[in-house]
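Why do we care about 3D structure at all? Because function follows from shape, and shape follows, mostly, from sequence. That is the central idea of this module. The next example makes it concrete: a single protein chain, its amino acid sequence, and then its structure expressed as tokens.
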Amino acid sequence: MAQGDSRTAVDTWLAGVHFGQDVSRSGPVIGALVAHAIILDSLRSLRDSARQGKLNEEQKTELSVVMKTMPEDGFDWGMAWGVEFAIGDQFLQKSRTTGKPESDDKIRAYEEYMLAAQAALRESPAEAKSRIADLDSKLHRLGQVEQNLIPSLRRTNEARIELATAHQELMQTLSTK
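And the structure:
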């Protein structure tokens, strides 16, 4: 954009959005947070360029189409939590045969928490807030080992809210003439 080539700039930022979505599908929550940073940077750059009048109508239309097909929070965050759950559950299951095994009740409580977290993350970020607050209170009832396996659900939702806000700001900017 700084060199006056808005077409290449838009293509690059869109590639960043798509790359971030690909990264989100590749692993646990840390991958989702990396994807969040990539997508957020691209959305903010696109928003700023649109606000500054650096995009033509064709580019605005193209971006609007792409943004309408994209989830408001960027991608399926529940998928990353599913990977996180599988990794943690595998660790807990292995603890049964090595070292100090975790009790069945603790493992079951971990599994219930992680499944509920995935379900909450499949709701809109705003709707998920109350479920996440409820889950936060349940987190402290889990065993210490289980707690240590679980990333911050609240921080995950805050990242989702950041993406949803950037998505909404870009959509609003693109719709203004």
